[in-house]
Amino acid sequence: MLPTRALTVTAVLALLVASLQPAWADVGDAAKGETLARTLCADCHLNPAQGEKQGPMGVPGFVAVANRPLQTAEGVVEWLESIPPMMPNHHLTQDEMYDLAAFIMSLRKEPTN
């Protein structure tokens, strides 16, 4: 009986942990984010073969941003929420930030941990 109880407790805990993920984690729409990126961000962040920024004034490509070690959609949203001074303020809505983050993270080539 003890192994069954332990499995039940483990399953309940797994469901509880899954429910504690940020509510926005699955909200972003990568297709909408791509449209926004091509409209607002392409000149600086979507250039062919653009990699990580070079030097303090360099601009990273979105593929490089997505593939930074430990990068997450939450991290992208937090960056956008900070209204970085080196970027134009596009007055993004929260939904637009989520959509952009979903698009950027869709470019990730290595698995997230």
Task: Give a structural overview.
The protein is an all-alpha fold. The chain is 54% helix and 0% strand. The chain contains 5 helices and no strands. Helix 2 crosses helix 5 and helix 4 crosses helix 5. The longest helix is centred in the N-terminal third of the chain and has 18 residues. It starts with a helix and ends in a 7-residue tail after the last helix. About 12% of the residues have low confidence.
Topology (SSEs and partners):
Blueprint: H1 2-19, H2 30-45, H3 62-66, H4 73-81, H5 94-106
Summarize the model shown.
This protein is mostly helical and 113 residues long.
Which structural class is indicated by helix and strand composition?
mainly alpha
What portion of residues is helical?
Answer: 40-55%
Major sheet attributes: none
Globally, the shape reads globular
- Element-by-element helix/strand order: HHHHH
Query: Roughly how many Å apart are the termini?
Result: 35 Å
Our Rg estimate from Cα atoms comes to: 18 Å
pLDDT < 50 stretches: 12-25
- Beta strand %: under 5%
- Total of DSSP H or I helical runs spanning 4+ residues: 5
Number of strands: 0
Q: How confident overall, as mean pLDDT?
A: 82
